[in-house]
UniProtKB/TrEMBL annotation:
Pathway given in the UniProt record: Cofactor biosynthesis; coenzyme A biosynthesis; CoA from (R)-pantothenate: step 5/5
Gene: coaE
Domain of life: Bacteria
Transmembrane regions: none
GO CC terms of this entry: cytoplasm
PROSITE patterns: DPCK
Protein name listed in UniProt: Dephospho-CoA kinase
Classification via SUPFAM superfamilies: P-loop containing nucleoside triphosphate hydrolases
Length: 194
């Protein structure tokens, strides 16, 4: 089985491309979706213990948690130490199930693949990218997003140019959905022949 690492900076269209892989029949493990699920399951009691008052009715209150960790690098590290191993175990279980099913290609959608040293977990890397101005427009259109938050997130991520340089495939999402879908199809076709 070939494990594809799907990544890209904020606002580049990674979730859209992940959906396109899934629509084409390639199983996708979405790290963001796993976090949402874990925040209502295994992670909730651990996070409440570390950050009291951040869990309501057994589910992590993302706004309360954000207030507890924002601007506090040590708190953020404590949170990552709880969440990252759980997400990794979830992804490992997904891959084991795909291997057992005889799946040829599987995608790990990992937003911070380069930042978290995830390169060793995948066989090929697909980076989703778009010009900086398109990225900026997409991100600033999100509810609650500010220029300051956007700049902070960018500062914490490996630059897009460096991600593209390290990628096996780059999918440009600045065109139409059909163009992006065609690019996804080309990657699947090329890896299916590998």
């Amino acid at each position: 089985m070939i494990v594809i690492g799907l990544t890209g900076s904020i606002g580049m269209g990674k979730s859209t491309v992940g959906t396109m892989f899934a629509d084409a029949g390639v199983p996708v493990h979405d790290s963001d979706e796993a976090v949402h699920r874990l925040y209502a399951e295994k992670a909730a009691p651990l996070i409440e213990a570390a950050f009291p008052g951040t869990v309501t009715d057994g589910v992590v209150d993302r706004q309360a948690l954000a207030r507890s960790v924002l601007g506090d690098p040590a708190a953020l590290k404590r949170l990552e130490a709880i969440v990252h191993p759980l997400v990794r175990a979830d992804a490992d279980a997904f891959l084991a199930a795909q291997r057992a099913a005889g799946t040829a290609l599987a995608v790990l959608d990992i937003p911070l693949l380069f930042e978290t040293g995830g390169r060793d977990r995948v066989d090929k890397i697909v980076v989703v990218s778009a010009p900086a101005e398109i990225q900026r427009q997409r991100v600033l259109a999100r509810p609650g997003m500010t220029e300051e938050k956007f700049q902070h997130i960018l500062a914490c991520q490996v630059p897009d140019a460096e991600k593209r340089r390290q990628a096996d495939f780059v999918i440009d999402t600045s065109g139409s959905f059909d163009e992006t879908r065609a690019a996804v199809s080309r990657v699947i076709a090329k890896l299916s022949k590998a």
